[in-house]
Amino acid sequence: MVKMNPKTIVTNLLLLLLQISNFSIVVFSLERLYRKPYKSEFSIRPSTVTRIIVANELWGLKNGSAGFVCAHGPKVWRKSNPGDWYIVIEFEHTGITRYKFVHCHLRSSRGYVNVPINIHPDTSARCYPSYKCHYFIRKDGVYYKPEKKLFPWLPFPRSKNGGHAKD
Fold it and tell me: 22-55, pLDDT tens digit by residue?
């Protein structure tokens, strides 16, 4: 009678079981997984300019004005009335610069919203053929048309002393 190593018996039984039941082998490793670089679904021609536009549509309100400031370029607070629109960002696609990320803060009498704006080739393709992406300031919030996404107004924080300065 031939004596076998217990580890060999267990290994052979597991391999036999895997062959019979058609299970796939999962190997856990502590090595870092290879990450593929970001690859766009769409291709945009070089020198294509994508514009992000903010338009005020607060028609019919007693105070329909709104204001916004973005975290790129000069920190200028822009005030808008219903019907006004502003080009917030103009982004030119080059082979070197592939994306841009900007935060904008918008306020109106309805509240405030912090909107993250991300521009990359997929964003530009959604805004095709004009390459103009619109954010609309509306009564229910800020609406991003290409993704049909609404950023609802957040109420202004109230101070503990009722808005009065300390004496």
Answer: 545 554 444 555 555 555 566 777 788 888 889 9
Instruction: Answer yes or no: is 59 within a domain.
Output: yes
Judge whether 105 lies within some domain: yes
Burial 129-161 (b: 16+ CB within 10 A, else e): eebbbbbbbbeebbbbebeeeebebeeeeeeee
Number of domains making up the chain: 1
Under 8 Å between Cβ of 145 and 134: yes
Gap between the Cα atoms of 44 and 4, Å rounded: 65
Do residues 68 and 54 make contact, with C-beta atoms less than 8 angstroms apart?
Answer: yes
pTM recorded for the entire structure: 0.66
Q: Which domain covers residue 123, as residue numbers?
A: 48-152
For residue 139, being part of any structural domain is answered with yes
Does residue 5 belong to any structural domain of this protein? no
